[in-house]
Structures are given as structure tokens and as C-alpha cells.
Amino acid sequence: MKFLPILLFVVFVLSGCKEAEAEATSDEMQISTLNLPPKEYDKKADYDIVVDSTAVAVEEVAASNAPPSVDKIEQKIIKSGDLRFETSNMEETNTAIQQLVKKYKAVVQSDSEDKNDYTLSRYLTLRIPNQYFDSFIKDLASGIEYFDRKNISIEDVTEEYIDVASRVKTKKALEERYIELLKKATKVSEMLEIERELGTIREEIEAKEGRLKYIQNKVSMSTISIEFYKSTEHKAGATISFGTKFVNAIKSGFNGISTFFIWLIEVWPFILILVALIYFIRKRFKKKRNNQNVDTN
Questions:
Q1: What is the pTM of this model?
Q2: Where does residue 294 rank: exposed (0-12), middle (13-18), buried (19+ CB within 10 A)?
């Protein structure tokens, strides 16, 4: 029993040595992990440039996921309006609208007219600076009793604008990186590969810059579609007397007959040919039938 304390002491010492050795080994592994030796190509002064499309794609994704450093952009709002109303005087209404166009520095994009048995209509499409949109609508509505149709829409495209602007900035940074690689390239294959990537990037930059210009144009100049019309006398059909309707019906029938005879005059050569064909066909069948009767007899 007197050897038991000595045995426990030896076991304790041995276990302590193993733990110390394990900790030392762990520290050495951590140190070796944190202080990796530099890569072999870092020691070379003139290493070859290799363009790896997969690596480029990874870099691009990482760049797009990173928080973009975009300058503060004001809110981008696209406004549009669609108006329809009735007027008693087409010329006066058009003159009033043209005065508002000059007042608010708008542009007439399209102007057309339409007339039928019931209404005389005019259609205008205006492009007006965004800051004058509300004032234009207010001034126009002040002279109108009610609108048959009034649709005002507002679209916030700030998020899309910031996103496209960020992507343009990222693509331009990637373009500069490729230009630097192109300057250092020494092999023809490397130059061709880099130039191909540059062409693709520049096409994407142009497309996104075009989208930015489109958004900016829609934001800076709002669109207003205006339709105003005047009712004609034919619309009040219920007030027309029976005698007038009877006379109109006779005129309509006479016009129909006249149209029919004019059509016959236009197609008379075809009618003549058709009659001749029918005559010869009937004559041939009649002759054939007579021959069959003679043979039978």
C-alpha cells in the first residue's frame, strides 16, 4: 500500500506531460496556419499572366455582393397621366392647352384627330419637365367640369437606378483591371483572351449606361396623354323625327342600288365570260344528250 501514492504521482506527471505536448503541438499548428509561407509566384519578378475566366467570375460576383460605394442619389420618380374629357369648343380647348405647354416648357410629342358620326376627338401626347407635372394638371383641371378618365401614376425607380449605377461602377473597375493585365501580357494568346473579356465587359457597360439614360429621361420628362372631344348632332338620335328617318332610309336604299349597279358595270367583262361559259357548257351537254338518244333509237 505504501507504493500507491508513488504510483499515482507518476501517473499524474505523465498525464501532465502529454497535455503539455498536445498543447504545444496545437500551438505549432495554429502558428503554421497563420504564418503560411508566401506562394511561389510571389517570389518571381516576371511571372506569367494567366487569365482564368472562372477566377474572374468569382471576383466579379464578390464585387457585386460587396456594399457598393455609390454617391448619394436623389429620389427618382417617373410620373405619367392619362386624361379624357368633353369640351364644347375644340379650338378654344386646344388653344388653352397650347398656352399651358408654353408656360410649363412642355413638348408636344404627338397630335392627331379623329371624327365619326358621334364625336370629334383630338389626341395629344405631351412631355413635360417633372417639376411642372402637378402644376400643369392643376391648371388644366381648373377649366374642366369633370373628367371622363383621369389616371395619374407615380413609379419610384430609385432602387433600380442605384442598382444599375452600382453595376456600371463595378464593371468599369473590372475593365480597368483587365486593361492593366493587358499592359503586362506578353503572349498573344493572353492578349486575345483579355481583349475578348474586355469586349464583353464594355458591351455590358454600354447596355447598362443606356438603361440609366432611359430611366433619367423618363424621370426628367413626364408623359401626359390628353384626349378631348366634342359630341356631334348625330349623337342625339332620339330627337330625330320619323319623317327624317324615313327620308334617310330611302336615300340609303337608293345609294345601295346605285352602288350595286356601279359594281355590275365594273365587273361586266367577268359576267360576260361567265355567261359565255355557261352557254357553251349547256350546249355541249345538250348535243351529247341528243347523240345518246340517236344511238338508242
A1: 0.51
A2: exposed
The count of C-alpha atoms lying within 13 angstroms of the C-alpha of 266, restricted to the half-sphere facing its C-beta, is 6
What are phi and psi for residue 124, nearest 5 degrees? -125, 140
How far lies 220's CA from each of 164, 165, 182, 266, in Å?
17, 17, 40, 58
The single-letter code of the amino acid at 39 is K
Contact 124, 225 (CB under 8 A): yes
pLDDT tens, residue by residue, 228-237: 999 886 544 4
Dihedral of alpha carbons 272, 277, 280, 281, sign:
negative
Residue carrying the nine cell digits 371624327: 115
As a whole number of angstroms, the distance between CA 171 and CA 167 comes to: 6
> CB neighbours of 271 closer than 8 A, spacing ≥ 6?
264
